[in-house]
Amino acid sequence: MNEPVSIRKGIVLMLLSVVFFSVNCLIIRWVGLFASVDGWMSSFTRGLAGTIFVIAVYSRGRGLHLSHLRKPMIILRGFLGVTTITMLYFTLIHLGAGRAMVINLTYPLFGAIIAALVLKEKPHPATLGLLILAMIGLGLFFSESLQNATFGGYDLLGLAGAVLAGATVVVIRKLTQTETAPTIYSGQCIITLLVTTPLAMPSFGETTPFIWFLLMLGGGIVAYGQILITKGFYHLDVAQGSAIQMLIPVLTGAGGFILFSESFSIIEIIGAILTLFATWRITIAPRAVLATSAPDVAIPQDTTKESCGTTIPPKKTPIR
């Protein structure tokens, strides 16, 4: 990119990406509630839409290297991706949009822990305190459901998905040293298709054209949302961009309240705020352990990383 840096444009792009990701989550919740579409079918259409998108936009020398998809690390990233996405979609359907997204966006906490253990990365001292704060927030968030014995399998599934998403971040961090973003993303999309096709096929005949349209729309929205995030981080620094991304559970929760009458208690809201605040601070902490992109939300650590096949130059003087 050689365009002038504009903070205003970056904020607009980031806010649009928040809207796109939230709309996709609400689509998955709606089709799950009212059209009996399960997580396998939702994951399949996301993989299909993502594959079409990445080939259309990044093939023919624009950053996509299909010959690299046989590499073990890309295959591992693909299997982790389809697992975490499917877990997220099942929790969106069964837990509610807002609750599922709060749990899912704890993945940087687990990414920090896994990177410290596996990659031997030394976290910043402040990160350790933030991890404790985040765990306290999670404890508050789940406290009422634990007391009322409503904490169940889908809550555990959501947490397991967040842990695996953290592991996915670590794999992506390694891959970005040698692979382009479109190649990494295409690996996830294609493996998602291979894994979910036999599991989703029984639903093909029962899915109406309108539901097919909604699901493909959601998959396309997510793919384009990734592009918006990449462009947004060209204009914003990590603190600004990642703070805006934390609006995803807020907007998704608001949509869930309006469309599906979902709600949180005061204790759950306090726990969610503590957890998301600590997650955001870990994301922007010095010597942070997060990768340049995530399973659903790409958070680069600086503006000189390669993103979507384009090397982003250092920032210029902002145009406000």
Task: Please give a structural write-up.
The protein has 320 residues and is mainly α. 72% of the residues lie in helices and 1% in strands. The chain contains twelve helices and two strands; from the N terminus they run ααααααααααααββ. It has helices at residues 7-34, 39-58, 72-95, 97-104, 107-118, 125-147, 153-175, 181-204, 209-235, 238-245, 247-260, 266-284, and strands at residues 306-307, 310-311. Helix 2 (39-58) packs across helix 3, helix 2 (39-58) crosses helix 9 (209-235) and helix 5 crosses helix 12 (266-284). The chain is globular and about 50 Å long. It starts with 6 loop residues before the first helix and ends in a 9-residue tail after the last strand. Residues 287-320 have low confidence and may be disordered.
Can you summarize this structure?
The chain has 12 helices and 2 strands. It is mainly alpha-helical and about 325 residues long.
